[in-house]
Structure to design on (395 residues):
């Protein structure tokens, strides 16, 4: 796994290793004047715009509770998975609790959260809910301070709320201590202020570039400058989310790009490395970005379809007598149940006996809600009949 970390003096290459000889994209004479082939990405760009419109259309038919829950799920996934890309694990329920509280949504029963998680959530909400506000160095410094409230990254003190200043090389490496493979070396610290000035000016500039392409360019541009001692990846994806929010004009987020990047983490780093060692034609990077964005939107469309089907299911069964245990399991099945449902899992979820679980299951079979899949051997597996129909695409 490639590790995107700050290479200060404590982690610099040994004296007998050769200095950087690779030519990186920021060393090109025309940097940062990127080019790309519109014809090669036109079809893909059109598909992504179409799918974004489709997702917006589905969500627009939701009620308030459905919209807010969909937004809550997407925002939680985005924050948790953006951190996980960098190898940091955030507690899912704590993040969800913080997002719900800061969005003014019910969060009873969810765990209390620490100040760090609160800060991480505040960054993302500021970026997406105030996407049209100018992106300035002070705003970025505020985000950075929220990521590192103690002034330390792990055991090491870093420069917080300011551009990196160390004279040592900032390198992206992998491998064991003393045996690094250098994948990328960022611009020297003294070049960062000027580069970020150009970056921020282009963020605010009105131009004819498609907003999704602009988001792809800024993602690559920021992570190439690597302006901070640490946290560059997370802030890069935060800026990307801000630009995507500007693109669709919606304050609420209904898909998670970081989830799709996490699913393609190896190719994400490989594509960045190839692009940063190439010329200023970044067509391949834009295509990768749009493909991954399409995956993120497609996943959300599938989830939104499930939400719609779940609503239709309960509308049809408004008069069906189901107990609280049955309602809980049915909702879990619609919301994304991992693995196969059997009586043992039912009993564990509902804190009841096996006999009670079997009575609940057989009652739902008689009412035409559940079916035996014919799998699972002695421990029978069950599924929702409606969901089986949906998965087969016959409804």
């Amino acid at each position: 796994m490639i590790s995107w970390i700050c290479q200060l003096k404590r982690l610099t290459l040994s004296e007998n290793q050769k200095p950087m000889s690779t030519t990186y994209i920021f060393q090109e004479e025309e940097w940062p004047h990127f080019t790309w082939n519109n014809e090669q990405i036109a079809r893909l760009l059109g598909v992504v715009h179409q799918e974004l419109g489709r997702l917006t259309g589905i969500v627009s038919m939701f009620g308030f509770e459905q919209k807010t829950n969909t937004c809550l799920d997407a925002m939680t996934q985005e924050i948790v998975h953006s951190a996980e890309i960098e190898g940091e694990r955030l507690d899912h329920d704590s993040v969800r609790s913080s997002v719900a509280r800061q969005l003014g949504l019910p969060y009873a029963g969810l765990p209390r959260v620490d100040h760090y998680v609160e800060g991480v959530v505040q960054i993302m909400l500021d970026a997406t809910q105030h996407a049209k506000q100018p992106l300035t160095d002070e705003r970025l410094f505020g985000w950075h301070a929220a990521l590192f409230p103690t002034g330390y990254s792990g055991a090491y003190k870093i420069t917080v709320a300011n551009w990196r200043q160390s004279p040592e090389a900032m390198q992206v490496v992998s491998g064991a201590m003393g045996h690094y493979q250098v994948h990328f070396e960022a611009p020297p610290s003294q070049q960062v202020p000027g580069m970020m000035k150009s970056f921020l000016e282009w963020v605010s500039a009105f131009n004819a570039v498609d907003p999704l392409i602009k988001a792809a360019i800024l993602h690559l541009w920021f992570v190439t400058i690597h302006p901070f001692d640490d946290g560059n990846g997370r802030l890069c994806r935060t800026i990307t989310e801000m630009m995507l929010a500007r693109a669709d004009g919606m304050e609420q987020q209904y898909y998670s790009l970081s989830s799709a990047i996490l699913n393609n983490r190896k190719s994400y780093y490989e594509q960045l490395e190839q692009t940063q060692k190439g010329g200023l034609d970044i067509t391949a990077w834009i295509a990768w970005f749009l493909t991954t964005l399409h995956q993120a939107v497609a996943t959300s469309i599938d989830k939104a379809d499930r939400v719609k089907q779940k609503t239709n299911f309960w509308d049809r069964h408004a008069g069906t007598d189901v107990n609280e245990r049955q309602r809980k399991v049915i909702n879990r099945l619609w919301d994304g149940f991992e693995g196969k449902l059997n009586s043992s899992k039912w009993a564990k979820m509902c804190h009841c006996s096996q006999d009670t679980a079997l009575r609940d299951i057989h009652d739902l079979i008689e009412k035409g809600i559940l079916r035996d899949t014919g799998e699972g051997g002695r421990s029978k597996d069950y599924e929702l009949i409606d969901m089986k129909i949906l998965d087969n695409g016959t409804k």
About this structure: DSSP finds 15 helices and six strands in the chain. The mean pLDDT is 88. The radius of gyration is 24 Å.
